[in-house]
């Protein structure tokens, strides 16, 4: 068994090494060389301008909106089950009836 293992491991290792050697230059295309940033010259600060005074804005008083009450009361809550709940219940009842029928059939055949 060990000789069989080496006959498959050596070609696999050789092909892996060959692919790394052959494809390594292509992998450098994903990583371009680092270029140092260009030297920057100092920039003189802009001349000082005095701040501009914003104009005064007068806001008129706001009147609150009128209170409106709803004359109709909300409708009563209805407790209707979801359709999936009904389907799940019916499937459960069908499974229980099938289980009972199988047990009844097994009991009738074992008594004969």
Structure description:
The protein is mostly helical and 112 residues long. It has a domain at 84-112. Helix content is 49%, strand content 0%. It is built from 2 helices and no strands. The protein has helices at 2-27, 83-111. The chain is flat, with a radius of gyration of 43 Å.
Number of helices: 2
Mean pLDDT metric:
80
Estimated structural class: mainly alpha
Helix content percent band = 40-55%
Q: Low-confidence stretches at least 5 residues in length (pLDDT < 50)?
A: none
Q: So what's the overall shape? A: flat
Q: How would a textbook summarize the main sheet? A: none
Whole-number radius of gyration? 43 Å
Strand content: under 5%
Gap from first CA to last CA: 60 Å
Number of strands: 0
The H/E string reads HH
Task: Record the SSE blueprint.
Blueprint: H1 2-27, H2 83-111
Name some characteristics of this structure:
112 residues; mainly alpha
Q: Nutshell version of this structure?
A:
This protein has two helices and no strands.
